Amino acid sequence: MKISILGAGAWGSTLALVASDAGHEVLIWGRNAAVVDEINDHHRNSGFLGEVSLPTQLRATTDIEEAFEGADLITLAIPAQSLRANLETWQQRYPRSIPTVSTLKGIEVSTHLRMSEVLRQVIDIDESQVGFITGPNLAGELALRQPAGAVSASTSRETAKLIAMAFKTPYFRVYTSSDLLGCELAAALKNVIALAVGIVVGMGFGENTQAMIITRGLNEVTRLGVALGADPLTFAGLAGMGDLVATCQSSLSRNRSFGEAIGKTGDLHIVRETLGKTVEGVASSSAVVEMAHMVGVEIPIIEAVAEVVSGRMSPAEALARLSEIDTGDEIDLKGIE
To answer: Is 190 a catalytic residue?
Structure first.
């Protein structure tokens, strides 16, 4: 296939490497001419992937029309909160007759829409042509071709299989799912839990505290996902628990690292100035809280994170609030049967 990947950051470049290894003709689109030139001339993207060598047959361009022309699959690998603006710019030229796979793990803050919903709203592409790839896939490890697994999700079984074929290599195992809703929700919500884990690590707490946050966080993610119509089993797989564990436990995770910096300094402004990276969990947390309120699901950990990243509460105050919550049955199947 001819695969065009829109986004020349760490994840876009890594997926391009994977798709190229899978035997496809791959073109990366990016805005930054210097990054594009480095990919074409030196087969590296040093600003995002360090000294990792990219396949020599991999090409890059700043011309969006070139990226669209002749493509068999479009892959979105840009920041979630900028998706709508980019799609509106591309709207007239965007190819609607071929599948689009999103890699964006976020909820649009202003609308509470998932990324596939934003795509379909702006581009008016058929749902059967839309997919999502997700899982415990840290770019820094996958770019080194370390073994990993992922899930290709779409309401169309054919599209899910096509996406799996596009990225399947001996080191990257891609499974399929028909639960697009659940996979997208799991991907977005786990970023907020990773912030929570980072915060308690930054505060100096150890494995017991982290395990509690991860486990109870997964409970919150599952309950909210099911209330919104997702399959509960999705949250026990690679898209749910797998991605959550990897994101919460790795120093390569932007959300975990951002949370850890907040826990250490207690000052959100200093952290933003120091790290200066796109952190989807920060942007999504308030939207997730509003979504939970609309369906009547309690998500105390996610609410605490939203309070901290908005500057309304310190990490210590948030932890104290969580400690005051009454405990009951750990496993309550009401509402997720």
So the answer is: yes
Residue 148, strand partner residues = 172
CATH architecture of the domain 181-323 equals: Orthogonal Bundle (1.10)
* Same fold yes or no, 2-178 and 181-323: no
CATH architecture of the region 2-178: 3-Layer(aba) Sandwich (3.40)
Task: Give pLDDT tens digits for 223-269.
Answer: 999 999 999 999 999 999 999 999 999 888 889 998 999 998 887 77
Q: What is the value of pTM for the model shown?
A: 0.92
H or E, element range at 28 = strand 25-29
Q: Where are the domains of the chain?
A: 2-178, 181-323
**C-alpha distances in Å from residue 193, one per residue of 12, 188, 247, 258, 269:** 24, 10, 9, 12, 20
Question: What distance separates the 2 farthest-apart alpha carbons in the chain?
Answer: 60
With a cut of 90, say whether residue 58 has pLDDT above it: yes
| Class of residue 53 by CB neighbours under 10 A (exposed 0-12, middle 13-18, buried 19+) | exposed
- Whose tokens are 């065009």? That residue is 4
For 163-182, what is the mean pLDDT? Answer: 97
Selecting among 2, 105, 161, 190, the annotated active-site residue is 190
Distances (CA, A) of 75 to 4, 17, 71, 131, 270: 6, 13, 10, 9, 34
